[in-house]
Write a structure and sequence with these properties.
single chain, alpha+beta, Phosphorylase Kinase, domain 1, 2 domains, two-stranded antiparallel ribbon, 7 helices, 7 strands, globular
């Protein structure tokens, strides 16, 4: 990515975007950082108040100014994470690596064999999508026994439309057509395939998300 396409943010700006790293903006912890939800103006990328503009993710590292990642129109902008490494671009190829990531989001093959595939991160996206659909965290020890791991608990339910309606986040009721919810659930299932080669590419994921967005837009148009 060309340097000119990156925008630098001061620590002061990131504090403003997250409400001074408020506990309400906290999303979770990684191995070496905390992740917060912040808000930026869509046009100027200036920090804004909660609920105004577009959502961004901000990583806060101990004794360091936070690193910043921004997504808009499915394009991520990352800088200075010191995590990248060169590897083969083939979907079938893998590289061996030391496991690094947040428990619950790491692909099974990375844990069992230490192999990292092109689609290993697709698994993590599937987990996040599942959390969004259910309004629950992937690991929650306060849940009843058998429901503490979101992926294991829900994989059998996601493919059944009638049961899906009973476990969807209640706060989303009336905001989506049932077809869109089912498509999102099926996409999550595909991303969570144990075999990395059976998972969709992020390009395929983006295409499905656009279809889901179109269904949602159609619903809002009918309501108007």
């Amino acid at each position: 990515m060309a340097t000119s396409s990156l925008k630098e943010f001061s620590f002061k700006e990131l504090k403003m975007a997250t409400g001074n790293f408020s506990s309400d903006a906290w999303l979770g912890d990684g191995d070496s950082c905390k992740v917060y939800k912040g808000w930026m103006d869509e046009t100027t990328l200036a920090p804004s108040t909660s609920g105004d503009g577009m959502v961004v993710a901000i990583k806060e590292y101990p004794n360091k100014e936070p690193h910043f990642e921004l997504w808009q129109n499915y394009n991520a902008k990352l800088s200075n994470f010191s995590l990248a490494r060169l590897g083969p671009s083939s979907e079938e190829a893998s590289v061996s690596t030391v496991i690094a990531g947040t428990f619950g989001y790491i692909a099974p093959e990375c844990i069992t064999t230490g192999d990292l595939y092109l689609k290993s991160d697709v698994y993590g996206f599937g987990v996040v999508l599942l959390e969004l659909l259910m309004g629950l965290r992937v690991n929650d020890q306060e849940h009843p026994c058998g429901e503490q791991n979101l992926v294991d608990w829900l994989k059998q339910i996601l493919s059944q439309e009638t049961k899906l309606k009973t476990i969807m986040d209640a706060q989303m009721e009336g905001q989506y057509p049932s077809e869109a919810a089912l498509q999102a659930a099926q996409l999550s299932l595909r991303c969570l395939e144990l075999d990395p080669l059976s998972r969709p590419s992020m390009k395929e994921v983006m295409e499905v998300l656009k279809e889901i967005e179109a269904l949602g837009s159609h619903l809002h148009a009918e309501v108007k």
